[in-house]
Fold:
Amino acid sequence: MSRIGKLPVSIPQGVTVEIKKNMVMVKGPKGELSRDFPPEISLKQEDGQVIATRNSDHRTHRAKHGLTRALLNNMVIGVSDGFSRKLQIEGVGYRSAVEGENLILNVGYSHPVVIEPPEGITFEVTDRAGREIIVSGIDKEVVGEISARIRRTRPPEPYKGKGIRYAGEQIRRKAGKAGKAG
Structure:
């Protein structure tokens, strides 16, 4: 039995889960999410919890069991609390700003990079210098993808550490030129 898959997903106050065959809709104070799950996994709602069970011990069914439970748990957490990802900008003259809903990045290119948020995603620049960005939303998958797209515009380089990184990310540094021995 999958260690993750056998754990029940508890439903907090103010969150409703509606299961129709393979379609699950989760509504909460932050919004609503829906997702199709594989037919090999059956979902049941009992006593304020959702339990995922698989139909057989086939290899693909075992693989999808834990995944289904984790995705459902992320949906419940997303509509009740939400998800956020923090990014830091390092480098001379590098900064960011929010104009309307769009995120404007000035990270060493000849032009500013404009990133438009998909539906349900918000950007926030927390410090005055524009060096900390918070990406937040209710869908964990979309928050992670947008954060990765922002980081990809100028990934941190190993010599000076300039670029966009996740908060707490360690960058492997290189020594650079040792200089000529004359």
About this structure: Residues 45 and 51 are 6 Å apart (CA to CA). The radius of gyration is 21 Å.
